[in-house]
Write a structure and sequence with these properties.
It is a single chain. The protein has eight helices and no strands. By secondary structure, it is mainly α. It folds into two domains: about 100 residues, no CATH class; about 80 residues, no CATH class. Helix 5 runs antiparallel to helix 6 and helix 6 crosses helix 7. It is extended and about 70 Å long. The relative contact order is 0.08.
Length: about 200
Amino acid sequence: MSAGFFLLLAGAFVWARLPLGGVLLRAAVVLPFSALFGLICWLAGDPARGLSLIVKSYLSTLAVLLVISTTPFPVLLKGLELTGVPQFLLLVGQFLYRYLFVIGEEAQHMRKASAARGATLRQWAGGAGFRSAAGALSVLFARSYGRAEQIHQAMTARGFSGHFQPLQRAQFRPYDTVFTIIACLVPILLRIAVERAAS
């Protein structure tokens, strides 16, 4: 059954025109962690459960990569909101998503300023370099915090009421119906086929 789900996910990646090899390689980042728990199950005398844990974690990672690669983050959060996810969690996710860009922008400014002063990667090596990096990190978060405060004040001045409004209104299109039918029927058919093969 796991092979069937793998083929289903692989077909979805091909349909979405995503590089299948790169996606399979990126999903392997979860394997060291799941392999550790699989090894524990193996040593506990249940190798089948350990192997199943590794396979299921890899397939779950592929499914997550498929969702985040084909769905913009604001649209994904809007879908979670429609399913009843608590508003507080959605706000945390939206602010985190936006402030990561703020931190990245501040880091780019600091990197350019450091390079303009003649700093090189060799100067960051050793104990003195570690202290310099720690100081730069604290400055980065202090500047990011100040920038985030300015952004929050600007949002409040523009009437932000605790709810992000999407730029486009979501519509259920015909190909969404096709996708929903396929996404529901194929796993059910795979399950029925596996049960019949086992019996």
